[in-house]
Amino acid sequence: MQFIENRTFDEIQVGESAELVRTLGTDDIDLFAVMSGDVNPAHVDPEYARSSLFHGVIAHGMWGGALISTVLGTELPGPGTIYVGQSLAFHRPVAVGDVITVRVTVKSKDPARRHVVLDCCCLNVAGETVISGEAEVIAPAEKIRRPRAELPEVHLHRPGRAYERLMELARPLDPIRTAVVHPCDANSLEGALEARRLGLIEPILVGPVQKILATAAEAGLDLQDVELVDTPHSHAAAERAVRLIREGKAEALMKGALHTDEVMAAVVDHACGLRTERRMSHVFALDVPSYPKPLFVTDAAINIAPDLQTKADIVQNAIDLVRAVGITEPRVAILAAVETVNPKMPSTLDASALCKMADRGQITGGLLEGPLAFDNAVSRHAAAAKHIVSPVAGDADILIAPDLEAGNMIAKQLMYLAGAEAAGIVLGARVPVMLTSRADGPLARAASAALALLFVRSGGQGAIG
Predict the structure, then answer these.
(1) Which of 236, 312, 332, 440 could link 398 by a cystine bridge, Cβ 3.0 to 4.6 Å?
(2) Alpha carbons 150 and 4: distance in angstroms, whole number
(3) Are β-strands 421-427 and 281-287 bridged in parallel, bridged antiparallel, or unpaired?
(4) pLDDT at residue number 465
């Protein structure tokens, strides 16, 4: 156990000093901004900071001041110290990666009041003074030795950070003409218009025109130059949107304010739908705060109890999507409850068969491993503890669930317990279908549109079967 111990007033000697060394990281800047509310762009906006006086992001000045307080409160005088006053002068900026030495030195003592005055300075690796100042404290009279407090873990996450690369890849591409089905509430209409503003889609709003116009007016949204196609109700809107695809007038579908079943009924219609030889499946693209990259989960929305051939299509659909976003050989974890083949567990048999299908070229473009339990798929530590040697284990890009119930539970648990943002599309049809939830915000809808754009422009459309 580690302890912290003070120096009492009587023990402290003039000229005595204490110090700590700290390297400034981006997380330090983000955490200080979150704690203080100081979002000065010089500290948190790299684009602005590049054009500023210092040509890059710098630390908040009081970050260094807080480190001085740390030395006073934990080292000299230490526990029991009461701050009376502090003066600071800021001489040089501190940039990400700078190593700063923080030092306090006793200047004088006042026995009548137990006041101690200390010189304070922060130095960079070149020995240059970054911050200087003077602190006045009341030093403790009694000896204090306490276990060092175990602080809570802090996990910083900027929502949508995992989607930034998708947006960057999509930015230079021409937007895709997208039939937006029944956008008759503010969320779906705003999401479509935001995707348009970002240059991801060119929306065709399909639904009852008067209702769409009323929704736009109520939400303060501008529909100037946006194409509208009038239909009497949501069911007709789905059918008309699919017809626009078949006529070559649109390249993707986006679900609006209607049930998923209505959209998919029109998509899977044998006579007039958008079927291909490939089985359709849904892929979630999750931005999970505790995972270092986007995590793709499938199938959590379409296929209830897929057989082996359906699973092969589900795997191939996911690989094709992930390759479209720039990952040349996606790492695919075929999930089960265990990491060994068990004849009593069909999911483990399917997992091993899928891996062999990949070996024989029946599934292409990805690196498959299975069966893997969830922990072995996403945690290198868990994989190592079970002696699993695999480039996929602990570093998966794609998680293949054994059935819809498991996939849905995995995705929803990551969303509601781990704070994941969720985007996603349906693949295997002639065009991608953006099945956003009516509760999804603009970020999820924009990320889904970026996925669809990248998929279409990569040549991912199928042919009508």
Answers:
(1) 332
(2) 12
(3) antiparallel
(4) 34
Query: Whose structure tokens read 């955490």?
Result: 31
Which pLDDT score, from 0 to 100, does residue 461 have? 52
Q: Averaged over 61-86, what is the pLDDT?
A: 96
Six token digits for residue 445: 């809808």
User: What is the rounded CA–CA span in Å between residue 105 and residue 76?
Assistant: 9
Give all strands (DSSP E) within 171-271, no chain letters: 176-181, 201-207, 227-230, 252-255
Q: Is 246 helix (H, G, I), strand (E, B) or coil?
A: helix
Residue type at position 313? D
Nearest to 252 by CA among 456, 458, 394: 456
* Angle, CA 369 vertex, CA 363 and CA 371 arms, to 5°: 115
Find, among 339, 344, 275, the residue nearest to 313 by Cα: 275
Which of 299, 277, 269 is closest to 406 using CA atoms?
299
Residue 218 DSSP label? H
d(CA 194, CA 446) in angstroms, rounded, equals: 7
Tell me the C-alpha distance between 403 and 398, whole Å. 15
Domain residue extents for the chain: 3-147, 277-428
pTM: 0.81
Query: First vs last Cα of the chain: how many Å apart?
Result: 68
Which segments within 280-393 are labelled E, that is strand?
A: 281-287, 295-298, 331-335, 367-372
| CATH class of the domain whose range is 277-428 | alpha beta
CB contact at 8 A, 255 and 237: no
* C-alpha gyration radius of the chain: 29
pLDDT exceeds cutoff 80 at 100: yes
Q: How far is CA 21 from CA 11, 43, 70, 93, 102, in A?
A: 24, 21, 11, 17, 6
Token reading at 117: 């005055």
pLDDT interval class at 435 (50, 70, 90): confident
3-state secondary structure of 264: helix
- Looking at domain 3-147, its CATH superfamily turns out to be Hotdog Thioesterase (3.10.129.10)
Contact 434, 254 (CB under 8 A): yes
Locate 429 and state its tokens.
Answer: 């049809």
Residue type, 346: P
158 versus 46: the higher-pLDDT residue is 46
User: Across the strands, what pairs with 101?
Assistant: 21, 123
Report residue 239 as tokens: 């059918």
What's the CA angle centered on 35, arms 5 and 148, to 5 degrees? 20
Which tokens in the block code for residue 284?
């979630």
Q: What is the DSSP letter of 334?
A: E
